[in-house]
Specification:
heterodimer; A: 88 residues; mainly alpha; 3 helices; 68% helix; B: 204 residues; 6 helices; 75% helix; disordered N terminus
Amino acid sequence: MSDTHPEASYRSYWIAWGILLVLTLVMISISSKALLLGGILVKSVIIGAWFMHLKHERAILIWSVIAGVLFAGFLFFLISFDAGVSVL
Amino acid sequence: MNPTAVTGHEAASEESEPGFYGTSWQKLMMWWFIIGDAILFGSFLAAYGFARISAGSWPDRTQMFSMNFITVMTFTLITSSATMATAVAASRRGDRKAAFNFTMATAIGGIAFLGMQAYEWYHLIHNGARMGTNPWGAPAFGAYFFTITGFHGSHVASGVLILLITAWNAKRGKSGPEGVELTGLYWHFVDLVWVFVFGCFYLI
Protein backbone atom coordinates (compact mmCIF):
# COMPACT_ATOMS: atom_id res chain seq x y z
CA MET A 1 0.00 0.00 0.00
CA SER A 2 2.82 2.38 0.78
CA ASP A 3 3.65 2.41 -2.93
CA THR A 4 0.35 3.92 -3.97
CA HIS A 5 -0.13 5.87 -0.74
CA PRO A 6 2.76 7.83 0.66
CA GLU A 7 2.87 7.13 4.40
CA ALA A 8 0.47 9.67 5.87
CA SER A 9 1.49 10.96 9.26
CA TYR A 10 -0.96 10.84 12.16
CA ARG A 11 -0.25 14.53 12.56
CA SER A 12 -1.76 15.58 9.22
CA TYR A 13 -5.09 13.98 10.21
CA TRP A 14 -5.20 15.84 13.49
CA ILE A 15 -4.38 19.10 11.74
CA ALA A 16 -7.34 18.42 9.39
CA TRP A 17 -9.43 17.68 12.50
CA GLY A 18 -8.46 21.03 14.02
CA ILE A 19 -9.33 22.89 10.82
CA LEU A 20 -12.73 21.14 10.67
CA LEU A 21 -13.51 22.05 14.28
CA VAL A 22 -12.56 25.69 13.75
CA LEU A 23 -14.63 25.83 10.55
CA THR A 24 -17.62 24.38 12.41
CA LEU A 25 -17.27 27.04 15.12
CA VAL A 26 -17.02 29.79 12.51
CA MET A 27 -20.05 28.41 10.63
CA ILE A 28 -22.35 28.37 13.64
CA SER A 29 -21.62 32.04 14.26
CA ILE A 30 -22.33 33.40 10.76
CA SER A 31 -25.63 33.70 8.94
CA SER A 32 -24.72 34.46 5.31
CA LYS A 33 -26.14 31.59 3.26
CA ALA A 34 -23.46 31.92 0.58
CA LEU A 35 -20.67 31.73 3.18
CA LEU A 36 -22.35 28.75 4.86
CA LEU A 37 -22.58 26.89 1.54
CA GLY A 38 -18.93 27.76 0.95
CA GLY A 39 -18.07 26.40 4.41
CA ILE A 40 -19.90 23.14 3.66
CA LEU A 41 -17.94 22.76 0.43
CA VAL A 42 -14.58 23.48 2.10
CA LYS A 43 -15.33 20.94 4.84
CA SER A 44 -16.31 18.29 2.25
CA VAL A 45 -13.11 18.86 0.32
CA ILE A 46 -11.01 18.48 3.50
CA ILE A 47 -12.77 15.24 4.43
CA GLY A 48 -12.59 13.87 0.89
CA ALA A 49 -9.01 14.86 0.15
CA TRP A 50 -7.35 14.10 3.50
CA PHE A 51 -9.46 11.60 5.41
CA MET A 52 -10.62 9.66 2.35
CA HIS A 53 -7.20 10.00 0.67
CA LEU A 54 -8.69 11.25 -2.57
CA LYS A 55 -5.68 13.50 -3.11
CA HIS A 56 -3.53 10.37 -3.44
CA GLU A 57 -5.84 8.72 -5.96
CA ARG A 58 -5.67 8.87 -9.73
CA ALA A 59 -7.37 11.75 -11.55
CA ILE A 60 -9.90 9.36 -13.13
CA LEU A 61 -11.20 8.29 -9.70
CA ILE A 62 -11.23 11.88 -8.42
CA TRP A 63 -13.24 13.02 -11.44
CA SER A 64 -15.65 10.09 -11.12
CA VAL A 65 -16.41 11.23 -7.59
CA ILE A 66 -16.76 14.88 -8.62
CA ALA A 67 -19.10 13.87 -11.48
CA GLY A 68 -21.31 12.03 -8.98
CA VAL A 69 -21.49 15.07 -6.73
CA LEU A 70 -22.18 17.41 -9.66
CA PHE A 71 -25.00 15.12 -10.76
CA ALA A 72 -26.56 15.40 -7.30
CA GLY A 73 -26.30 19.19 -7.59
CA PHE A 74 -27.85 19.01 -11.06
CA LEU A 75 -30.92 17.27 -9.56
CA PHE A 76 -31.54 20.34 -7.43
CA PHE A 77 -30.96 22.64 -10.38
CA LEU A 78 -33.63 20.77 -12.40
CA ILE A 79 -36.35 21.12 -9.77
CA SER A 80 -35.35 24.56 -8.51
CA PHE A 81 -37.40 26.30 -11.21
CA ASP A 82 -40.53 24.53 -10.01
CA ALA A 83 -39.80 25.68 -6.47
CA GLY A 84 -39.90 29.21 -7.84
CA VAL A 85 -36.28 30.23 -7.46
CA SER A 86 -33.22 30.70 -9.55
CA VAL A 87 -30.39 28.90 -7.80
CA LEU A 88 -28.45 31.29 -5.50
CA MET B 1 -7.54 -5.26 -16.40
CA ASN B 2 -5.04 -5.10 -19.20
CA PRO B 3 -1.59 -4.90 -17.57
CA THR B 4 -0.43 -2.41 -20.24
CA ALA B 5 -3.03 0.02 -18.93
CA VAL B 6 -1.03 0.41 -15.72
CA THR B 7 2.35 0.96 -17.34
CA GLY B 8 4.34 3.44 -15.39
CA HIS B 9 2.31 2.80 -12.29
CA GLU B 10 4.00 1.61 -9.13
CA ALA B 11 4.04 -2.03 -8.19
CA ALA B 12 0.70 -3.64 -7.37
CA SER B 13 -0.28 -3.89 -3.74
CA GLU B 14 -0.03 -7.31 -2.19
CA GLU B 15 -3.81 -7.60 -1.99
CA SER B 16 -4.83 -7.08 -5.58
CA GLU B 17 -3.80 -5.64 -8.90
CA PRO B 18 -4.55 -1.93 -9.41
CA GLY B 19 -6.29 -1.41 -12.71
CA PHE B 20 -7.33 1.56 -14.80
CA TYR B 21 -8.41 3.46 -11.69
CA GLY B 22 -5.14 2.78 -9.91
CA THR B 23 -6.80 1.06 -6.98
CA SER B 24 -7.95 -2.41 -6.05
CA TRP B 25 -11.44 -3.42 -7.18
CA GLN B 26 -12.52 -3.60 -3.54
CA LYS B 27 -11.73 0.04 -2.99
CA LEU B 28 -13.23 1.02 -6.34
CA MET B 29 -16.48 -0.76 -5.45
CA MET B 30 -16.55 1.06 -2.12
CA TRP B 31 -16.17 4.35 -4.00
CA TRP B 32 -18.95 3.38 -6.41
CA PHE B 33 -21.19 2.61 -3.45
CA ILE B 34 -20.28 5.95 -1.86
CA ILE B 35 -21.07 7.87 -5.05
CA GLY B 36 -24.44 6.09 -5.30
CA ASP B 37 -25.20 6.81 -1.66
CA ALA B 38 -24.11 10.44 -2.13
CA ILE B 39 -26.64 10.80 -4.94
CA LEU B 40 -29.30 9.30 -2.66
CA PHE B 41 -28.59 11.89 0.02
CA GLY B 42 -28.24 14.56 -2.67
CA SER B 43 -31.77 13.74 -3.85
CA PHE B 44 -33.10 13.85 -0.30
CA LEU B 45 -31.52 17.23 0.34
CA ALA B 46 -32.67 18.55 -3.05
CA ALA B 47 -36.23 17.49 -2.18
CA TYR B 48 -35.84 19.15 1.22
CA GLY B 49 -34.60 22.36 -0.42
CA PHE B 50 -37.55 22.26 -2.80
CA ALA B 51 -40.08 21.74 0.00
CA ARG B 52 -38.51 24.44 2.14
CA ILE B 53 -38.46 27.05 -0.62
CA SER B 54 -41.99 26.16 -1.80
CA ALA B 55 -43.32 26.38 1.76
CA GLY B 56 -42.37 30.06 1.91
CA SER B 57 -41.81 30.12 5.66
CA TRP B 58 -40.03 27.44 7.61
CA PRO B 59 -39.84 26.71 11.35
CA ASP B 60 -37.24 28.86 13.11
CA ARG B 61 -34.24 26.62 13.79
CA THR B 62 -33.21 28.53 16.92
CA GLN B 63 -36.62 27.72 18.45
CA MET B 64 -36.37 24.00 17.76
CA PHE B 65 -32.75 23.06 18.27
CA SER B 66 -30.16 23.61 20.96
CA MET B 67 -27.21 24.74 18.88
CA ASN B 68 -24.69 23.94 21.63
CA PHE B 69 -25.95 20.36 21.72
CA ILE B 70 -25.83 19.99 17.93
CA THR B 71 -22.30 21.43 17.89
CA VAL B 72 -21.19 18.78 20.39
CA MET B 73 -22.77 16.11 18.15
CA THR B 74 -20.87 17.51 15.18
CA PHE B 75 -17.59 17.62 17.12
CA THR B 76 -18.10 14.01 18.17
CA LEU B 77 -18.55 12.86 14.59
CA ILE B 78 -15.60 14.90 13.25
CA THR B 79 -13.39 13.55 16.04
CA SER B 80 -14.46 9.99 15.26
CA SER B 81 -13.44 10.63 11.64
CA ALA B 82 -9.97 11.74 12.80
CA THR B 83 -9.55 8.64 15.00
CA MET B 84 -10.64 6.52 12.03
CA ALA B 85 -8.03 8.11 9.75
CA THR B 86 -5.45 7.41 12.48
CA ALA B 87 -6.61 3.78 12.67
CA VAL B 88 -6.08 3.40 8.91
CA ALA B 89 -2.58 4.91 9.16
CA ALA B 90 -1.76 2.64 12.12
CA SER B 91 -2.95 -0.41 10.20
CA ARG B 92 -0.72 0.56 7.29
CA ARG B 93 2.24 0.72 9.63
CA GLY B 94 1.40 -2.78 10.80
CA ASP B 95 0.55 -1.55 14.29
CA ARG B 96 -2.37 -3.86 15.03
CA LYS B 97 -2.85 -2.70 18.60
CA ALA B 98 -3.18 0.98 17.62
CA ALA B 99 -5.42 0.02 14.68
CA PHE B 100 -7.71 -1.85 17.10
CA ASN B 101 -7.69 0.95 19.70
CA PHE B 102 -8.42 3.75 17.25
CA THR B 103 -11.12 1.76 15.45
CA MET B 104 -12.76 1.09 18.82
CA ALA B 105 -12.48 4.79 19.71
CA THR B 106 -14.24 5.56 16.42
CA ALA B 107 -17.03 3.10 17.25
CA ILE B 108 -17.45 4.72 20.68
CA GLY B 109 -17.71 8.12 18.98
CA GLY B 110 -20.41 6.69 16.69
CA ILE B 111 -22.34 5.27 19.65
CA ALA B 112 -22.10 8.61 21.48
CA PHE B 113 -23.41 10.38 18.37
CA LEU B 114 -26.35 7.96 18.12
CA GLY B 115 -27.15 8.46 21.80
CA MET B 116 -27.21 12.24 21.34
CA GLN B 117 -29.35 11.93 18.22
CA ALA B 118 -31.80 9.70 20.07
CA TYR B 119 -31.98 12.32 22.81
CA GLU B 120 -32.56 15.09 20.27
CA TRP B 121 -35.35 13.13 18.58
CA TYR B 122 -36.92 12.41 21.97
CA HIS B 123 -36.77 16.09 22.82
CA LEU B 124 -38.37 17.16 19.51
CA ILE B 125 -41.08 14.47 19.64
CA HIS B 126 -41.78 15.36 23.27
CA ASN B 127 -42.33 18.96 22.14
CA GLY B 128 -44.87 17.84 19.55
CA ALA B 129 -42.88 17.27 16.35
CA ARG B 130 -44.34 14.52 14.15
CA MET B 131 -43.87 13.40 10.54
CA GLY B 132 -46.92 15.38 9.42
CA THR B 133 -47.17 18.18 11.96
CA ASN B 134 -45.16 20.32 14.35
CA PRO B 135 -45.81 23.28 16.64
CA TRP B 136 -43.36 25.65 14.88
CA GLY B 137 -44.72 26.09 11.34
CA ALA B 138 -44.58 24.34 7.94
CA PRO B 139 -45.93 20.79 8.50
CA ALA B 140 -43.44 19.33 5.98
CA PHE B 141 -40.56 20.04 8.35
CA GLY B 142 -41.09 16.89 10.42
CA ALA B 143 -41.19 14.53 7.43
CA TYR B 144 -37.94 15.90 5.99
CA PHE B 145 -36.15 16.24 9.29
CA PHE B 146 -36.93 12.77 10.60
CA THR B 147 -36.43 11.04 7.25
CA ILE B 148 -33.08 12.61 6.46
CA THR B 149 -31.55 12.59 9.96
CA GLY B 150 -33.01 9.10 10.40
CA PHE B 151 -31.39 7.88 7.21
CA HIS B 152 -28.11 9.39 8.30
CA GLY B 153 -28.50 7.88 11.78
CA SER B 154 -29.12 4.43 10.30
CA HIS B 155 -25.88 4.87 8.33
CA VAL B 156 -24.09 5.67 11.59
CA ALA B 157 -25.66 2.62 13.26
CA SER B 158 -24.59 0.21 10.51
CA GLY B 159 -21.19 1.97 10.50
CA VAL B 160 -20.74 1.24 14.21
CA LEU B 161 -21.45 -2.44 13.53
CA ILE B 162 -18.92 -2.49 10.68
CA LEU B 163 -16.38 -0.70 12.90
CA LEU B 164 -16.74 -3.25 15.70
CA ILE B 165 -16.27 -6.13 13.24
CA THR B 166 -13.27 -4.39 11.65
CA ALA B 167 -11.68 -3.69 15.05
CA TRP B 168 -12.05 -7.33 16.02
CA ASN B 169 -10.65 -8.54 12.68
CA ALA B 170 -7.78 -6.03 12.79
CA LYS B 171 -6.80 -7.24 16.23
CA ARG B 172 -6.72 -10.86 15.09
CA GLY B 173 -4.83 -9.90 11.94
CA LYS B 174 -7.71 -10.99 9.70
CA SER B 175 -8.30 -7.46 8.41
CA GLY B 176 -5.28 -5.89 6.75
CA PRO B 177 -4.65 -2.23 5.91
CA GLU B 178 -7.09 -2.31 3.02
CA GLY B 179 -9.90 -3.78 5.10
CA VAL B 180 -9.49 -1.02 7.67
CA GLU B 181 -9.24 1.57 4.89
CA LEU B 182 -12.53 0.45 3.29
CA THR B 183 -14.29 0.75 6.65
CA GLY B 184 -12.63 4.15 7.00
CA LEU B 185 -13.92 5.29 3.61
CA TYR B 186 -17.47 4.42 4.63
CA TRP B 187 -17.11 6.14 8.01
CA HIS B 188 -15.68 9.34 6.51
CA PHE B 189 -18.56 9.36 4.07
CA VAL B 190 -21.02 9.21 6.97
CA ASP B 191 -19.17 12.20 8.47
CA LEU B 192 -19.31 13.97 5.10
CA VAL B 193 -23.08 13.50 4.85
CA TRP B 194 -23.42 14.99 8.33
CA VAL B 195 -21.58 18.11 7.13
CA PHE B 196 -24.39 18.61 4.62
CA VAL B 197 -27.23 17.61 6.97
CA PHE B 198 -25.80 19.85 9.69
CA GLY B 199 -25.45 22.74 7.25
CA CYS B 200 -28.85 22.36 5.61
CA PHE B 201 -30.97 21.75 8.72
CA TYR B 202 -29.20 23.50 11.56
CA LEU B 203 -27.28 26.38 9.99
CA ILE B 204 -29.12 27.59 6.91
